[in-house]
């Protein structure tokens, strides 16, 4: 009876731990659909910016410029769009930097410097990158004479391409991640099968010197395989090891 109970517990552990988890890069997609429902419950906790909102924001800036707004008027118009009291989490995150950029443009100060200062003060990694990149786009347009709308449009397309490549990489790595988890928990599955057929695997492994040697070698190889597989997945993801 105890063997059957242990087998059931092992089966449950295998099922829970082998269940595929969602990649952090794709979490933002699911939150967009239910964000309006969860937002009242998450007040007081800093929300991370959805990376998919950044190209949309840059496209908004591009649209304002193409509609005839000057670079000095751009930030005030963007602030009027995202400065409402009932704005989204993204609007709340960009509002301080937009206000500072608008004030700098009105006073004739350097908007790129203001954006870089906003990047250093932001606690959101996505917004830090956004403000630094926008400052670089402004400087490129000012020094080269290229239309700012064209520079921002190319930047938005580049960000969209990066997000698409990240999503494709996550989809391609879903199988290897699930395989790593499955192979890591196969020994527990073997223990469960042993108990179900009436064998005591622990007694066999711990009751003799060859059994202990086999158990030790199996544990070492399992840990090494898990570490090596995780290393390969991280390398494919592009994360530093």
Automatic annotation (TrEMBL):
Chain segments annotated as coiled-coil in the UniProt record: none
Ranges of residues in domain Type II secretion system protein GspF: 57-193
Membrane-topology descriptor: Multi-pass membrane protein
Superkingdom, taxonomy of origin: Bacteria
Key words, A-Z: Cell membrane, Membrane, Transmembrane, Transmembrane helix
Pfam hit, one: T2SSF
Tagged with keyword Membrane: yes
Compartmental location: Cell membrane
Transmembrane annotation, as ranges: 202-224
InterPro entries membership: T2SS_GspF_dom (IPR018076)
Protein's UniProt name: Type II secretion system protein GspF domain-containing protein
């Amino acid at each position: 009876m105890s063997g059957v109970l242990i087998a059931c517990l092992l089966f449950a552990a295998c099922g829970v731990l082998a269940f595929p988890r969602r990649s952090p890069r794709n979490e933002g997609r699911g939150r967009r659909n239910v964000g309006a429902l969860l937002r009242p419950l998450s007040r007081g906790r800093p929300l991370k910016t959805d990376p998919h909102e950044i190209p949309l924001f840059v496209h908004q800036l591009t649209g304002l410029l193409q509609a005839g707004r000057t670079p000095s008027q751009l930030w005030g118009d963007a602030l009027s769009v995202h400065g409402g009291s009932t704005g989204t989490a993204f609007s709340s995150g960009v509002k301080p930097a937009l206000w500072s950029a608008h004030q700098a443009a009105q006073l004739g100060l350097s908007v790129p410097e203001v954006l870089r200062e906003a990047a250093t003060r932001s606690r959101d990694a996505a917004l830090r990158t956004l403000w630094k990149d926008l400052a670089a786009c402004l400087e490129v347009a000012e020094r080269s004479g290229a239309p700012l709308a064209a520079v921002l449009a190319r930047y938005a397309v580049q960000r969209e391409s990066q997000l698409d490549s990240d999503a494709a990489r996550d989809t391609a790595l879903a199988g290897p991640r699930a395989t790593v988890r499955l192979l890591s928990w196969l020994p527990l599955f073997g223990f469960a099968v042993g108990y179900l057929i009436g064998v005591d695997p622990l007694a066999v492994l711990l009751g003799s010197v060859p059994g202990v040697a086999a158990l030790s070698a199996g544990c070492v190889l399992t840990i090494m395989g898990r570490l090596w597989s995780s290393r390969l997945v991280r390398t494919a993801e592009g994360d530093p090891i």
